[in-house]
Write a structure and sequence with these properties.
By secondary structure, the protein is of the alpha/beta class. Helices cover about 40% and strands about 15% of the residues. The chain has four helices and four strands. A two-stranded parallel sheet has the order 1-2. β1, α2 (about 30-45) and β2 (about 55-60) form a beta-alpha-beta unit. α3 runs parallel beside α4. The longest helix has 17 residues, at about 30-45. The chain starts with a helix and ends with a strand. This is Ferric reductase NAD binding domain-containing protein. InterPro entries: Fe_red_NAD-bd_6 (IPR013121), FNR_nucleotide-bd (IPR039261), RBOH/FRE (IPR050369). Pfam families: NAD_binding_6 (PF08030).
């Protein structure tokens, strides 16, 4: 991911990494971790966990909110969603890609990677 981030000189690619094995979202401990992370990333442009430009998020994401934020920030855009992880989440992310593609001006292309 760092190689991709470094090659993205035009700022076209937005990468996020989610650390889901920490405290649940809304827990005071995860809020503190997220606050320190955000301050460090804003100040230095580098993630405190990965040491790269790719921002780490803590706790499980609200996927609907993630898709909505992207649609609001990138109207009329074509967005590639690349997912690598448990197959249980594949259906939800694929369905959200379809829903937001139909209900917003942002078009999502979902891709599932298997290793």
């Amino acid at each position: 991911m760092n190689d991709v981030a470094e090659e993205d000189r035009g700022g076209l690619i937005e990468l996020h990494s989610y650390c889901t094995s920490v405290y649940e979202q809304g827990d005071a401990r995860s809020a503190l971790i997220a606050m320190v992370q955000s301050i460090s990333h804003a100040k230095n442009g580098v993630d405190v966990v990965s040491g790269t430009r790719v921002k780490s998020h803590f706790a499980k994401p609200n996927w609907r909110a993630v898709y909505k934020r992207i649609a609001l920030n990138h109207p009329e855009a074509r967005v590639g969603v690349f997912y690598c992880g448990p197959s249980t989440l594949t259906h939800e992310l694929r369905q959200l890609s379809l829903d937001f593609s139909h209900n917003t001006s942002t078009k999502y292309d979902f891709h599932k990677e298997n290793f």
